[in-house]
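Worked Example 4.2. Consider the chain below.
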Amino acid sequence: MNHCRIATITISILVPVFASAANPFLDTKDDKPVSAKFRGTEWGDEIGRHEIPLTARVVTTRVARMPWGAIFKIEFTDLKSRAKKHREIRPDYFIVTDDRIVLLNEEDNEDAAKKISTMDKPPEFEPNDIYGITTGSFEHQEGDWKTTIKLKGDLCIYDASHPSGHFKKIVWQKGVG
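Applying the procedure from the previous section yields the following C-alpha cells:
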C-alpha cells in the first residue's frame, strides 16, 4: 500500500471525527453573526404586578475558535417594551467545548476572550459558571442558589433558582446555535 493511499484512508476516517467535534447546542458554521427573534415578558418591582411583553433580536457571534473549542458572544438588540424604564441587557460570552457551555464571567469579557483564545487548552471552569452539558446531568449549589442542568431530547435545560424568587432559565436546542 503506498503512502498516498494510507494518507487518504486516514483523512477519510478523521474528517467525520473533526466535523462532529463541535458542541451540538452552541455552534455556528462560520464567524458571521446569526440572529433570531425573541419574545418574552419582563417583570419586576418597578413594573408593578403585571408582566409586560418584551421583544428583541438575539445575535450569536463566534468571536474566537481554538483547537479545543470556541468563544461565542450572545447579545440582545432592538429591545422593545412598554416599560417606563427601558431595560439594558449586556452581552454574555460563553466558552464552548465539545461537552460544556461555560459562562465567561470576567470584568472585561472581551479582553478575557482574547486571552483565552490563545490558550493551548481550555481554562479550569467554576461549577456555577457551567451553563450547558452534552451528556448526563449536572447539579450544583452555591449558597442559596441551586442549579440543575438536564438533557431532554434535543434540549439542554439550565435552571438556576434562589428561595427569594430570583431565577434564570436557559434552554439550548440542538442544531439551533
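Confidence is low (pLDDT under 50) at residues 1-21. The chain has two helices and ten strands. Compare this with Example 4.1 before moving on.
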